[in-house]
Amino acid sequence: MTNKKVLVTGGAGFIGSWLCKHLNDNDYHTIILDDLSFGKKNNLNILDDYTFIKGSILNDNDLDKIPWNNITQVYHLAALGDVHDSLDNPKKYMAVNANGTHNILEKCREFKIPFLMTSTCMVYGLHAQYEDATTNGISEAHNTLPVSPYGASKLAAEQIAISYHYSYQSTIKIARPFNTYGPHQASNNKEGGVIPIFLEKSINGEDLKIFGDGTQNRDFLYVKDCANFLYQYMNTKDTPLILNAGSGKTISIINLAHKIKSNNQIILQEHPHPQSEIMVLKCNSDLAKSNLNWSPQYTLDQGLLENKQWIKEQQND
Ligand SMILES: NC(=O)c1ccc[n+]([C@@H]2O[C@H](COP(=O)([O-])OP(=O)(O)OC[C@H]3O[C@@H](n4cnc5c(N)ncnc54)[C@H](O)[C@@H]3O)[C@@H](O)[C@H]2O)c1
Q1: Cβ 219 vs Cβ 248: under 8 Å
Q2: What's the gap in Å between 265 CA and the centre of ligand 1?
Q3: Are the C-beta atoms of 176 and 127 separated by less than 8 Å?
Q4: Domain 4-184+220-246+283-297 falls in which CATH fold?
Q5: What are 167-212's pLDDT values in tens digits?
Q6: Can you tell me which atom of ligand 1 is nearest the CA of 43?
Q7: Any residues with Cβ below 6 Å from ligand 1, and which?
Q8: Which of 35, 69, 128, 261 has its C-alpha lying 20 to 30 A from 284's C-alpha?
Q9: How many helices (H) and strands (E) does the chain have?
Q10: Helices (H), 169-299
Q11: Is 110 exposed, middle or buried (0-12, 13-18, 19+ CB in 10 A)?
């Protein structure tokens, strides 16, 4: 076992589990703190060098179970991440995403540990629809204007982290991945999981349902590219406080459905929260490219193929 130990909060979740795999492959032992509210123990089957602690970032007793003195880096991914659910339950999003982040930041300050959090492209909100952002992609220089409690709670977390950088000289890195997809992503109608939802329905011969008219455009990032981005960001010195990660290419949800479907019907249905829909999210990752020498390795077609094969393997198990 290596003596390079890092903490990954939310490590039993979708992105967290692939990040832990990337860390194991690079000789890091991962300590995972996850309350399993959305993560799954099964997601840890891809790992070979980890310690799992079931607990919440909101609970001091759980935080005391972590060997902070032995940890060299903290990747903070634990969060609630469903835009629609956040409109119905804003209070719990503020608690977990803002206050929970603050709890982890406090530990990093006390033990002088570098802190990286996964924020989200949803902090840009309406600014992502401005003309230069839809053509060149939205860069970190653009303003933020979240249109959901989810986006607002992540922006609040970012702001607390930035204040720790200036107040206490804490090492802070804020990653803003765009829509990430791949194996381990929930397909239980969570908005972020549109690709696994469509893939599963396509395989099972069910209808592909779309909220609204399907003209909303998204920039999809394969989860292994996202994990590599987080790793590179953490391990590169003198990086900007905030970095975007995305493919720089967009596809409309209706075209995505046509790409994935076989003999399925596509059904347009009423949007439950049209006021919080962002019509275009296109990433400009130039800063990540120049600072980390990072760019995504997977095309959408390659990612879809790998994700589909994985879903089929799960169904055959
Ligand atoms: N999936 C995306 O497209 C996407 C895009 C940008 C940013 N993000 C961010 O990446 C991170 C991971 O998202 P994901 O898509 O893997 O979602 P996920 O739900 O699979 O992972 C989040 C994990 O956090 C855990 N968690 C939730 N509340 C907790 C608490 N109080 N204490 C401890 N653990 C808790 C969950 O059980 C889950 O395992 C989140 O911070 C999310 O905001 C996701």
Answers
A1: yes
A2: 31
A3: no
A4: Rossmann fold (3.40.50)
A5: 999 999 999 999 999 999 988 755 558 999 999 999 999 999 999 9
A6: 39
A7: 9-10, 12-16, 33-39, 56-58, 77-81, 96, 100, 118, 120, 154, 177, 179-180, 192
A8: 261
A9: 12, 13
A10: 194-204, 223-234, 253-260, 286-292
A11: exposed
